[in-house]
Design the sequence.
């Protein structure tokens, strides 16, 4: 659970709904539709008649930016233009920065003619919220970052509109300053009330009707979900662009969502030779670091961790999923690091039971795949857990090395790398 | 702000009835030779009272209060709250704690507290000059002085990492899981930790790595600092600033984890909410580099951390800034009964033996038959009675007979002594159970309690080889009435319909009815003397049970004898009749009957 990105569509709908509920003299348009491969365009026309009456904008809505630079925005378009634009691009694979992904979702909204493009963002810091503003918004805001002015709103204090006008908006033409300040103040209240972690509008445009939110980027603090059961009903948290979840990752994510324990899996290289089956959020990062530090980052099959005292069944399912990935890897020799620090209260023998079950079930495939296991773990009941692991390796004839807290946590990593190299 | 949060006299409240962490804190106290337990009271919003725990081998009572305010009022010296409230209530409870003058340090264990709430709490605490640790943390500990909750893990580990006595290293990390690993690393490469704090894995922990490092800096008993940072966020740059401004003068060994982020194709959320790969400045490499430049000891990888710590420690030893210490003896902690039992170290005869049912698994079993099987097989209450009383699954005709008996004896009107007593008690305003018990207590030799005796005597008579007439004469010679013979009202001319129904069933369904036939012969003789000396309900149920048990192949002759000796047949009357008595009790209450008083004219005063 952490800060998670949401679609521009959800962000705008969410804010419009908030604005409509609070009598703050603050109104936002809710004229947005999200289209994907399932969309029935004829039904859409009927349910959203404004689509036929107004000039429109269409663009992908998949958590990546710089859409204009990638020629993925169509301005001043008719409904049919939008439809053609989308059907020409839906399902196409594109590259944005480091990520490659498929276009699946598009946002259509009214086209707003405007003269100025400002930049506005809200973010959270340790002891304050920060409002960022620039007169020179738009595609080049990063190049002109020195023009961005910021105003901090310390936690436990409320935002003063005159501070906004004086500090943030001093160079805005005076007739716009008042309305802009009250607009930003309202947006800030929405930002805080709705538990946004980040909210950015680039540009925030000035049209004949005053301020208009054009492109939006937003992250929510998803730990606040329990306070927003009603508000957040329709919000989804898509995976970052270019990261379609693999079957195994989706399975582990579904287990993770159902339990108080934590189960994480990211497949890095399905053909990798070094695999991790590590307990603990902190320890898992350190194991991953160590593999990378030793120059084997490209050989690392996965990142993952299990923690928060998962029961035997969950540990079993987690281990089985990882082990199946391992046995499927075409690498000649493979090592699995069953690692972890010294647990505070997790019963090591108990969690190892689930791993032993998974190993026993897939023993044949594991033997054939030339897998060696490297175990290092400490914590309550660890001698029993390590003994059980050692016995399992011996009975199943799977090569295994077993260590306790007497050995440094990451010292199994060079051993695991030596095995796949030899 | 005073830098000392914990010493060996610090006491705490634990919010939430967390029996295990409480016991772990107390066990740590004992190993550390603390004079007083570190847990003074428990705050449990759903109950007040006492919580029992061990302090060494002594059992102690820890008071339990419903609110933090109440606990603080009763125990002003307590300065720490270990808050185990869930992520839903962590905010409100911590706020309540911050409002208490007497509390100074609050540890928020919950993971998943909304960031805005956390930041508000942190700001409030700063304003009030209080310390918050967490959220999403195991807490921390002062070695040999004070343990927060589960920090430090098992007792074996506390001993192995020498956490029962203070060393000279101040340690702080984000990760709670890794803190225990680091305690071990530090113990192996120096004289161990003095204090170790896990600030929690969230993006906005209430106190930062630097907050605690500055605290350690001011503590004269700490000679060196070790910290473990994490990718994501920019907190580590505050440490860089503090090093450059010479706010930290003690040697600092630090490693920022997450150097692996560059191998990831796109943004990945690691196990901790605050650890996210992304911006260059927030990367582990950039942070490690900046810290190294600012003068911290930064190894080239996590593997190099032990070495960096031992080198720094050795240097301090040489310079005389730490002194070799004499290791104090570790007191032996009494082992928990449960643990010892699980490890096979002790044994003890059981206080209670039970052979009929087992509630330990997912499902209760009656004589090893799971309840679900009885449901599936459409079993009856007769089957349940035979399983729990006779430890047998009887054939259908037998369990049906048990049910017929229950139906037959369920009630016999309001005039009989049991129902009467129940009615009188009910009308006196007594509750259902008391009124039922009042009726039940009349069951005995004269009322309803003759089934067993009837079975015993007819069994004895039949098996002794006597003819029915010899049996009658024998009983007469002994001056005994035959149990199960005779009725106040019913007679040969006015037979008891209940007996007729049961007899008809037995004749039709039982494989044999030897005992019943014998009893009917006896009845012929007794009714020839007086026409109300019939085989009554008790008698007929008793003798038919003899036929039933002796004819069931499931019941061995020994088990047959045992069943009669144990007197299980009266149980049938008790169960059956309680149905009627409960009915009478309810009936009286429904009819709003007033207190019963027996009329004077019906009493003979002598």
Sequence:
């Amino acid at each position: 659970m952490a800060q998670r990105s949401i679609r521009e569509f959800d962000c705008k709908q969410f804010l419009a709904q908030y604005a409509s509920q609070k009598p703050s003299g603050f109104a936002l348009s809710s004229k947005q539709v999200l289209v994907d491969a399932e969309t029935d365009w004829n039904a859409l026309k009927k349910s959203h008649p404004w689509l036929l009456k107004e000039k429109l904008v269409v663009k992908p809505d998949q958590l990546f930016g710089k859409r204009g630079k990638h020629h993925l925005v169509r301005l001043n378009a008719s409904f049919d233009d939008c439809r053609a634009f989308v059907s020409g691009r839906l399902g196409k694979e594109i590259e944005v920065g480091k990520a490659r992904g498929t276009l699946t979702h598009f946002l259509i909204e009214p086209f707003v003619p405007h003269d100025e493009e400002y930049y506005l963002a809200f973010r959270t810091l340790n002891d304050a919220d920060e409002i960022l503003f620039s007169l020179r918004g738009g595609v080049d805001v990063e190049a002109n970052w020195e023009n961005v002015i910021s105003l901090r709103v310390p936690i436990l204090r409320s935002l003063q509109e005159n501070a906004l006008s004086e500090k943030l908006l001093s160079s805005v033409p005076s007739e716009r300053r008042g309305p802009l300040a009250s607009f930003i103040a309202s947006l800030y209240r929405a930002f805080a009330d709705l538990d946004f972690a980040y909210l950015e509008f680039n540009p925030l445009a000035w049209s004949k009707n005053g301020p208009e939110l054009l492109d939006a980027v937003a992250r929510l603090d998803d730990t606040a979900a329990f306070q927003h059961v009603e508000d957040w009903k329709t919000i989804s948290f898509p995976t970052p662009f270019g990261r379609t979840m693999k079957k195994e990752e989706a399975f582990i994510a579904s287990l993770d969502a159902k339990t108080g324990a934590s189960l994480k899996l990211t497949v890095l290289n399905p053909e990798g030779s070094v695999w991790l089956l590590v307990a603990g959020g902190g320890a898992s990062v350190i194991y991953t670091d160590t593999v990378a530090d030793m120059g084997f980052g490209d050989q690392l099959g996965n990142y993952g961790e299990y923690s928060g005292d998962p029961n035997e069944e969950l540990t079993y399912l987690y281990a089985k999923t990882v082990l199946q990935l391992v046995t499927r890897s075409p690498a000649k020799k493979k090592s699995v690091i069953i690692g972890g620090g010294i647990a505070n209260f997790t019963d090591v023998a108990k969690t190892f039971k689930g791993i032993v079950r998974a190993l026993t079930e897939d023993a044949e495939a594991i033997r054939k795949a030339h897998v060696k296991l490297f175990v290092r773990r400490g914590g309550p009941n660890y001698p029993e857990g390590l003994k059980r692991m050692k016995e399992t390796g011996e009975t199943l004839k799977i090569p295994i090395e077993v260590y306790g807290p007497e050995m440094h946590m990451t010292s199994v990593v060079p051993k695991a790398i030596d095995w796949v190299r030899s | 702000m005073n830098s000392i949060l914990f010493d060996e006299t610090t006491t705490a409240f634990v919010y939430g009835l967390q029996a295990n962490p409480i016991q772990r804190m107390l066990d740590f106290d004992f190993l550390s030779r603390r004079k007083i337990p570190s847990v003074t009271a428990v705050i449990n919003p759903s109950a007040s009272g006492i919580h029992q725990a061990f302090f060494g081998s002594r059992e102690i009572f820890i008071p339990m209060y419903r609110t933090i305010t109440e606990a603080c009022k009763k125990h002003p010296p307590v300065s720490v709250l270990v808050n185990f409230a869930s992520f839903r209530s962590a905010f409100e409870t911590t706020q309540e704690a911050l409002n208490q003058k007497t509390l100074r340090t609050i540890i928020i264990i919950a993971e998943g507290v909304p960031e805005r709430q956390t930041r508000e709490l942190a700001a409030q605490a700063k304003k009030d000059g209080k310390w918050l640790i967490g959220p999403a943390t195991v807490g921390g500990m002062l070695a040999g002085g004070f343990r927060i909750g589960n920090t430090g893990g098992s007792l074996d580990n506390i001993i192995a990492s020498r956490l029962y006595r203070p060393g000279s290293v101040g340690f702080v990390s984000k990760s709670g899981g890794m803190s225990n690993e680091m305690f071990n690393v530090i113990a192996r490469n120096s004289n161990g930790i003095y204090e170790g704090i896990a600030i929690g894995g969230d993006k906005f922990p209430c106190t930062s790595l630097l907050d605690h490092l500055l605290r350690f800096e001011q503590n004269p008993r700490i000679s060196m600092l070790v910290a473990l940072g994490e990718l994501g966020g920019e907190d580590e740059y505050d440490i860089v600033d503090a090093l450059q401004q010479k706010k930290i003068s003690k040697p600092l060994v630090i490693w920022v984890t997450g150097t692996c982020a560059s191998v990831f194709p796109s943004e990945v959320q690691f196990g901790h909410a605050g650890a996210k790969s992304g911006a260059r400045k927030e990367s582990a490499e950039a942070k490690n580099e900046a810290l190294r430049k600012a003068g911290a000891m930064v190894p080239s990888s996590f593997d190099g951390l032990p070495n960096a710590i031992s080198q720094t420690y050795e240097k301090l030893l040489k310079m005389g800034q730490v002194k070799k210490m004499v290791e104090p003896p570790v007191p032996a902690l009494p082992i928990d009964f449960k643990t010892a039992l699980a490890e096979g170290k002790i044994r003890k005869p059981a206080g209670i033996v039970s052979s009929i049912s087992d509630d330990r698994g997912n499902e209760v079993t009656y004589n090893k038959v799971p309840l679900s099987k009885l449901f599936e097989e459409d079993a009856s209450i007769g089957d349940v009675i035979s399983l729990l009383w006779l430890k047998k699954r009887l054939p259908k005709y037998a369990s049906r007979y048990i049910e017929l008996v229950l139906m037959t004896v369920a009630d016999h009107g309001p005039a009989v002594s049991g129902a009467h007593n129940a009615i009188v008690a009910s009308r006196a305003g007594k509750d259902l159970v008391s009124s039922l018990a009042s009726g039940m207590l009349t069951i005995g030799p004269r009322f309803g309690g003759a089934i067993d005796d009837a079975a015993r005597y007819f069994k004895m008579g039949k098996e002794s080889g006597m003819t029915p007439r010899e049996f009658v004469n024998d009983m007469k010679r002994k001056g005994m009435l035959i149990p199960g013979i005779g009725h106040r009202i019913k007679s040969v001319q006015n037979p008891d319909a209940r007996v007729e129904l049961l007899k008809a069933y037995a004749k039709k369904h039982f494989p044999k009815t030897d005992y019943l036939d014998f009893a009917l012969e006896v009845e012929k003789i007794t009714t020839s003397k007086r026409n109300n000396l019939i085989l009554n309900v008790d008698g007929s149920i008793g003798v038919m049970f003899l036929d039933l048990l002796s004819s069931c192949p499931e019941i061995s002759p020994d088990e047959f004898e045992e069943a009669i000796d144990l007197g299980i047949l009266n149980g049938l009357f008790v169960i059956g009749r309680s149905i009627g008595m409960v009915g009478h009790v309810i009936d009286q209450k429904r009819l709003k009957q007033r207190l019963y008083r027996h009329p004077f004219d019906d009493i003979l005063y002598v």
